[in-house]
Each structure stands twice: as C-alpha cells, then as structure tokens.
Specification:
This protein is an alpha+beta fold and 155 residues long. The chain has helices at 4-16, 24-40, 66-82, 86-96, 100-104, 138-154; strands spanning 46-51, 55-60, 117-122, 126-134. 52% of the residues lie in helices and 17% in strands. A hairpin with a 3-residue loop joins strand 1 (46-51) and strand 2 (55-60). Helix 1 packs antiparallel against helix 4 and helix 2 packs across helix 6. The mean pLDDT is 96.
Length: 155
C-alpha cells in the first residue's frame, strides 16, 4: 500500500492551513474550537497549543489522563524540532523502515512520530509553534486538528 497520497494530502494541509497573523486571542479561539469539537465527539483528549518558548492553551477533557500529557509533550517536541506534522513524519519513517532515533537522532523518550502534532504556521515566518492533540487513534487526532483549523481559517 502506497503512502504517497496520504503524504501529499498532509503536505497540502501544511501549505494551506497558515495563519496570516497569530495572537493570544487567536490561540484562545483555536484552543476553545478544538475543545468544543472534541466535546461534541465525547473525545477523551488533551489539547495543547504552544509556541517554541511557551504554552498558550492546554486542556484535558474527561477521560484524558497523564499518558496523554506525555504524548502531547513528545509530539509537540517533534513538531517544534522538525517543523512538520507528526503523522507525516510517522508515515515517512514507516515507509523507509527508519526510526526517529536513527534518522534524526531524536530520543523516543522525548519525541513521538504518531499523528496528533501539527505545525502552527504563520505566513511569512513558517512554523512558530505546535498544535497537539492526544487521546484518539493517531489519524483521528490529526483529523481533529485539521478540521478545526479549516473551519477557523475559513471564518
């Protein structure tokens, strides 16, 4: 099975889901939109929006636990280090038979290549942070972020 279509879709999402500007109010709007979407699905997730130097939004919904917080940390670290979606990284590594450690020298204790980490991209600057969700299967974590970004950026 080819992963090329999935990688192309993720690359397109990263090209299109770009903020023209990003403020603390934008972080709150995005975080609450993610929370509302997760609550509507009764999704037991943790949500995090962080810049490279500080967290801007964090929420844990009913059913999310300490493991989700650690997955958030590891996925966020990967996005901040590589500037791209953790789902895309995971697919590429699976296809090539490589690991985060082998390809990038990243410790699995502090990084994860599982879907649910997405770059926070600012027009003209690139990746300024990470949007992270943990608690659903990895494709659903990724999808929750993408669907919420699409709705927020279209408004």
């Amino acid at each position: 099975m080819s992963i090329a279509p999935d990688l192309a879709l993720i690359a397109e999402q990263e090209r299109e889901l770009i903020f023209p500007r990003f403020t603390l109010e934008t972080a709150w709007a995005l975080g609450t939109a993610l929370r509302d979407a997760a609550l509507a699905r009764a999704a037991p997730v943790a949500i995090d929006i962080s810049l490279h130097d500080r967290p801007l939004f964090h929420a844990a919904l009913p059913g999310a636990g300490p493991d989700n917080a650690d997955w958030i940390r590891r996925k966020r670290n990967t996005v901040l280090r590589l500037g791209t979606s953790t789902l895309g990284i995971g697919l590429k590594l699976t296809a090539s038979g490589e690991t985060l450690e082998g390809r990038y020298g990243l410790s699995l204790r502090d990084h994860a290549a599982h879907g649910g980490g997405f770059p926070l991209i600012l027009e003209g600057l690139g990746c300024i942070g990470a949007i992270t969700v943990s608690g659903l299967p990895q494709v659903e974590d990724h999808g929750l972020i993408v669907q919420t970004l699409e709705a927020l950026l279209a408004a």
